[in-house]
Design brief:
12 strands; globular; binds pyridoxal-5'-phosphate; Rossmann fold
């Protein structure tokens, strides 16, 4: 058994060799409204269901409890569906990576860790650099050279050691792993430690709370490593154990870039794992993950939810970023814009049915991607 008082990475038992999931003794009989009344408007409002034991170890920049927005100009195109954005772009460092990294850094502080390393497609590196600066922890970030300049600059400004790698995130991961093992640094690669997932699961708690405990019918999620998708799915299970929601679940849709669409292929083949797929550059750098470490768990959530998976190309994302800025007043990340394209396709095909309530998770701010939007 793994213990939360120790430093944990992955499950190393021969029959497991995959992500470790935090488990809690969840109480029953709590009144959700009373329990949450007067809580802070951040992800820490759910701290009893999160891994940090001592509140003095929480490293917070105000992450979470992001707004749920209805559609403005796009509502005409949504036809018979009520569509919502959960807008994560206002998080510290401009993306929802603040949730996962904020959680992992807080727990690392609790465990006395002095140096953290991560490979990143962009946003996780900036978040790690910022939260480590605040925690007084050293950060090393391994990022593909092709990432837009702003993602590199923010890491340097927050004082992290930035290594630019001539390759993709898988290459970054190999180098980061070698250097971490040589130097005894702690790695927070996606789903290779248990707590980034715990931060991202707070999106699931917020979705339930903000939808007044009546979950939407369909959730679209831009899938890179899949932390948020698996985290939201875990949150719904915990909420059911708490008795705060029932058995009903949304259908989960993984949206990928055509460049890295291994999950889409695996899902439509009915496979339990995915193949490595990397066709190179995409403007949605957060989606350039050739083979998610937790592909099994992503696919499991998709199958369990009767979900779907769909890939979008750069031209479609680019056009959607501009269209959404024009009609919604939101300059969102290409990863988020991909969801609107995916929704339109799946409603045109009839998979999203008239009358269903649909949630799109805009995971990041478009301001960091301007050099690649034309
Ligand atoms: C990292 C990232 C994603 C992918 O998130 P995962 O949880 O790793 O699948 C999506 N959008 C943005 C903006 C990101 O930074």
């Amino acid at each position: 058994m793994h213990n939360a008082a120790n430093v944990n990475t992955v499950c190393e038992n021969a029959d497991c060799r995959s992500t470790l999931f935090a488990e809690y003794d969840l109480p029953t009989g709590l009144n959700r409204e009373q329990f949450l009344a007067g809580r802070p408007a951040s992800m820490w409002r759910y701290h009893e269901f999160l891994p940090v034991a001592d509140p003095s170890n929480v490293v917070s920049l105000g992450e979470g409890f992001t707004p749920l927005l209805t559609l403005a100009g796009l509502s005409i195109e949504a036809l018979n569906n009520q569509v919502f954005w959960k807008d994560e772009s206002g998080n510290p460092t401009g993306s929802f990576k603040a949730r996962g990294i904020g959680m992992a850094v807080s727990k690392a502080k609790e465990l006395g860790i002095a140096h953290i390393v991560t490979p990143t497609a962009g946003n996780a590196g900036g978040a790690l650099a910022a939260y480590c600066a605040r925690a007084g922890i050293r950060a090393s970030v391994y990022m593909p050279q092709l990432t837009p300049k702003v993602f590199k600059d923010e890491c340097r400004l927050y004082g992290a050691d930035l290594v630019e790698v001539d390759g993709n995130i898988a290459d970054c991961g190999k180098l980061a792993n070698d250097h971490a093992l040589q130097n005894g640094w702690f790695q927070v690669s996606t789903l290779k430690e248990p707590y980034r997932l715990e931060g991202k699961k707070t999106m699931g708690y917020e979705i339930a709370e903000q939808f007044n405990w009546q979950l939407p019918d369909v959730i679209f999620y831009p899938t890179g490593g899949g932390t948020g998708l698996i985290g939201i799915w875990k949150a719904f299970k915990e909420l059911e154990q708490l008795g705060w929601i029932g058995k009903e679940r949304p259908r989960m849709v993984a949206v990928q870039s055509i460049s890295c669409d291994g999950i889409v292929t695996a899902f439509h083949n009915g496979d339990l794992t995915s193949e490595f797929k990397d066709a190179g550059f995409t403007i949605a750098n957060g989606l350039r993950v050739p083979k998610p470490y937790a592909d099994k768990q992503i696919l499991k959530a998709l199958y369990e939810s009767n979900g779907n998976a769909i890939a979008i190309d750069d031209a479609e994302m680019n056009a959607a970023v501009k269209h959404i800025a024009n009609t919604e007043g939101m300059l969102i990340a290409p990863e988020g814009a991909a969801l609107w394209v995916a929704f339109k396709k799946l409603s045109a095909s009839g998979w999203v049915k008239p009358g269903e309530r649909v949630l799109l998770l805009n995971t990041g701010s478009g301001y960091k991607y301007l050099e690649n939007i034309v």
